[in-house]
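S2.1 Query sequence (Carboxymethylenebutenolidase)
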Amino acid sequence: MADKTPHQNMAFESVEGTAHGYLALPASGSGPGVIVIQEWWGLTDHIRDVADRLAAEGFVALAPDLFGGSIAHDGAEAAEMMSKLPAEEGARLLAGAVDHLLGMDEVTGTGVGAIGFCMGGGFVLALAAQQGSKISAAVPFYGVGAAVPSNYAGVRAAVQGHYGNEDDFYPVAKAHEQEAQIRAESGAEVTFYYYDAPHAFHNDENPAGNYREECARQAWARSVAFLKEKTR
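Output structure tokens follow.
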């Protein structure tokens, strides 16, 4: 059992060995589990804040550290760090995080949710495809990167996506293709929302200045309501 510290850095076991992350517990001490998956910048204060916000909504939120403590300071450094993380290795580490959450006394329900951004959105889709019924709700924000699956037949989670119409990193036409492919290959419940916003519009600390407050607020409200519905 985790201790009752509301917010803490912690370690957990994965196929890759001991991994680290950030755990945020709700005031009640228990609730549905949600994996929070970082952007290519690393486990930043912004991602920790996302976990804290989910805990304030009643979730047990775990944000695994995919880069072993490293934080990128510009796009070139972030791209290099992402390129050094094999998709298979990241997926195995995240699978360990899922099992850790499911094994916690504080986590209620039989499946967990997953929410991720950019690179993390790609890993959300990978987890949903690989972990089957262990993932009950998948929320990719502009999911990209090497982890994006080529096939979604294994998805059992309900999927809610959030993508930008002005995304020059992942064109909206590709997002529509992704939405259709997930729906066709998984048969799961799939809803994508599209915003008049660029890539990474949810990140209020994004170095590129892509944050769009109203779009971020709307996407967040939809995500929280969806996770509450699907992880009960």
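The first strand starts at residue 7 and ends at 14. The longest helix spans residues 213-230.
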